[in-house]
Specification:
Elements lengths: L15 E4 L2 E4 L3 E3 L4 H14 L2 E5 L3 E4 L1 H16 L3 E5 L3 H10 L7 E2 L2 H19 L2
Parallel strand pairs: 2-4, 3-5, 4-6, 6-7
Antiparallel strand pairs: 1-2
């Protein structure tokens, strides 16, 4: 008898766009142990491409602890290279996971991509003003 569950997990795609100097990463699918390295590489690349990074999670159906770890490590890396790193538009399930783990205390989470893009512009302006003092 065949299992109702497919042996392979859903694939993850991470198209990345640059919008006004900000790298916008849009992971679509599940972020888990099988897709972790691909997701991590997409975020590393985004940090190199933009002066800030917005991760649009509207297409992310699920994220496990390995995906959370990638986000936290990427945030730390962004801090080291003086880049803003924020999350945007998480689905209801992803938002629930973030709430349980209190991810919002470590990474800014915006309700929409538009709010996140505006937020990183403001963060960069503050950062530049502090750097010039």
């Amino acid at each position: 008898m065949e299992s109702a569950r497919s042996p392979s997990r859903s694939e993850l795609t991470c198209p990345t766009y640059v919008v006004d100097g900000t790298a916008l990463v849009h992971p679509q699918g599940e972020i888990d142990l099988q897709t972790e390295s691909f997701f991590a590489e997409a975020l590393r690349s985004a940090l190199e491409r933009g002066d800030s990074v917005v991760v649009d999670l509207s297409g992310t159906q699920y994220i496990d602890s390995t995906g959370i770890h990638v986000l936290l490590q990427s945030r730390k890396q962004a801090d080291l290279v003086k880049r803003a790193f924020v999350l945007a538009a998480p689905s209801r399930l992803v938002r629930k996971i973030f709430g349980i783990l209190e991810i919002g205390k470590r990474i800014l989470i915006y309700d929409t991509v538009e709010a996140a893009l505006k937020g990183v512009r403001e963060l960069l302006a503050v950062s530049r003003n502090e750097g010039g003092s």
